[in-house]
Amino acid sequence: MSNQWIVGVDLGGTTTKLAFITMDGEIVYKWEISTDNSNEGQFITSNIEKAINEKLNDLGQTKAKLLGIGMGAPGPVDYETGTILNAVNLGWKDNFPLKESLEASTSLKAAVENDANCAALGEMWKGAGNGAKDLVCVTLGTGVGGGVIANGNIIQGINGAAGEIGHITVIPFDGAPCNCGKTGCLETVASATGIVRLAMGELKKAESTGELRALLVKNGKVTAKDVFDTARNGDELAQQVLNEVSFHLGFVTANIANTLNPEKIVLGGGVSKAGDILLDSVKEYFAKFAFSAVRKSTQLALATLGNDAGVLGAAWLIKNKLNQ
Ligand SMILES: [Zn+2]
């Protein structure tokens, strides 16, 4: 049994990441397929089955090599029933029985969880969490996701919607509209799109010169990466945007830490590739807003797994099931 593999799947609206992973969390093989969400998403799980069989064949293995399949999916998931409550990007109707569909397609034991929660579990298992049992993960990508792990388990909430850190309100009045339908969510100021929006707002306001404005003139737009790169080079306007983003992240993570006192709060996702310039700045505000006993014990850290966090966390779901 110990030399068997688990299939880890990170399902996205356009791309599905797959990996064969050992019980120790080593990735044996990883690859991607495009997500076909046509016809109300009816091909998604059968395409995954096809991809797995092809890859097993390529590697000279059979289905017997596989222990089960874990999947992270976008949207709130009821872990017990394996139902995805709402998956607009995938074509599935509300309350889609994902676990059931996956088990029927693959004839493997399946487990499904929200994708941001899987990323948190991955970081707990093999990444920045380094085995920490109390961990909060904030994924800063196109949107902002969150996962809260307490005593080794994901906090689900009554409706699978716990840990939605991206939708904590940070601008209570007149905030920008969020994808969730509210306004002023953390996602509107700390996601890649939110950072660009803040930067464009500043660029419109002031007749400043500087590297960020030069990039806007040259490229007709700026990216979140441009903001961090030019801030690192001393661009004042970019530093102002960085400061605003860091304030909100420091404020939110400190208050989460004041509530949960986790061992670590991990910042992941594409935006976290900004590295220390972001982390150090968030840490300053975190220290300002965290309660003293929390400030001394809860650490802020950058995620270390990158794109692999999701498939690893998905595989962990199966490993954890087998251990129960
Ligand atoms: Zn929101």
Task: Write up what this structure looks like.
It is a single chain. Strand 5 (77-78) and strand 6 (83-84) form a beta hairpin. The chain is globular. It has helices at residues 38-41, 44-58, 98-106, 115-126, 187-190, 192-205, 211-219, 224-232, 236-260, 276-289, 292-297, 309-323, and strands at 5-11, 15-22, 27-34, 66-73, 77-78, 83-84, 110-114, 135-140, 144-150, 153-154, 264-268, 299-302. It is 42% helix and 20% strand. The protein has twelve helices and twelve strands. It is α/β, with parallel strands linked by helices and 324 residues long. It has two domains: 5-122 and 308-323, Nucleotidyltransferase, domain 5; 130-304, Nucleotidyltransferase, domain 5 (2-Layer Sandwich). The protein starts with a strand and ends with a helix. The chain has a five-stranded mixed sheet with strand order 3-2-1-4-7, with helices on both faces. A five-stranded mixed sheet has the order 10-9-8-11-12, with helices on both faces. Bound molecules: zinc ion. Zinc ion binds at residues 167, 178, 180, 182, 185, 187.
As laid out across the biggest beta sheet, the strand order is 3-2-1-4-7
Q: How many DSSP-defined strands?
A: 12
Please report the distance between the alpha carbons of the first and last residues: 16 Å
Largest beta-sheet characterization: 5 strands, mixed
